[in-house]
Design a protein that fits this description.
Pfam families: Response_reg, Trans_reg_C. One of its GO terms (biological process) is regulation of DNA-templated transcription. By secondary structure, this protein is an alpha/beta fold. It folds into 2 domains: about 120 residues, Rossmann fold; about 100 residues, Winged helix-like DNA-binding domain superfamily/Winged helix DNA-binding domain (Arc Repressor Mutant, subunit A). About 40% of the residues lie in helices and about 25% in strands. It has a 5-stranded parallel sheet with strand order 2-1-3-4-5, sandwiched between helices. The chain has a 4-stranded antiparallel sheet with strand order 6-7-8-9, covered by helices on one side. A 3-stranded antiparallel sheet has the order 10-12-11. Strand 1, helix 1 and strand 2 form a beta-alpha-beta unit. The protein is elongated, with a radius of gyration of 19 Å. The chain starts with a strand and ends with a strand.
């Protein structure tokens, strides 16, 4: 799940991004409404975590514009405004959830997972492709009965591929899904990641293979019998 965090408090943004990253989310963090709108214009996000007290524009105005212009991703307001009227206004303006600061990281993670379930991402179901399975709840990957030892990014890549099994995924789409905006990457970072994941699947006897579509991207495919 890819998150856009719009929060102007640097320490809080770093804390939230770190905690969400450890929970398996990919997080792009910006500090102004303007930067948030630009990120939404060029990126694809599953959810936005939105502060209301932004330096250049009230977050509520940004939320209303998002909904008015058809931005459909889930929005969780994260703010110090704790009045009932504030919550009602936020939800009425188009927010899907509202969490008051200070907050517990575990609750923020749980609320985002709940939003993911509402979007039909299937967190309650184990994903399967061939003899490879992935449990989004526990982040455990298996080939048959063999539990795979994967890095966080390898798990993220495998989940992304399984959800799109049999379809070609461009390198750009995979890179945007797996890495935060602005992170410095080697030109072959995605290729190296896929190479490692492909080898782990092969060594475990997977009945699927990650096919490289030269000049385009990758596809998770079931091996011919």
């Amino acid at each position: 799940m890819k998150i856009l965090l719009i929060e102007d408090n640097r320490k809080l943004a770093e804390y939230a991004a770190l905690g969400l990253g450890k929970a398996g989310f990919v997080v792009d963090a910006v500090s102004t409404a303007g930067d948030g709108w630009e990120a939404l214009a060029v990126g694809s996000y599953d959810a936005v975590v939105l502060d209301l007290g932004l330096p250049d524009r009230d977050g509520m105005d940004l939320l209303e514009e998002m909904r008015r212009k058809g931005v459909a991703c889930a929005v969780l307001i994260l703010t110090a405004r704790d009045g009932v009227e504030n919550r009602v206004n936020g939800l009425t303006a188009g927010a899907d959830d509202y969490l008051v600061k200070p907050f517990a990281m575990a609750e923020l993670v749980a609320r985002l997972r709940a939003l993911e379930r509402r979007q039909g991402k299937g967190l309650e179901m184990t994903l399967c492709y061939g003899n490879v399975s992935f449990d989004p709840r526990t982040r455990e990957a298996r080939v048959g009965a063999i539990v795979l030892t994967l890095s966080r990014r390898e798990r993220d890549a495998l989940e992304y591929l399984i959800r799109r099994g049999g379809r070609v995924i461009t390198r750009t789409a995979l890179e945007e899904a797996l890495y935060p905006m602005g992170e410095e990457l080697a030109s072959n970072a995605v290729d190296v990641l896929i190479h490692r994941l492909r080898k782990r699947l092969q060594d475990a006897g997977a009945a699927v293979v990650i096919v490289t579509m030269r000049g385009v991207g990758y596809m998770l495919s079931v091996k011919p019998s």
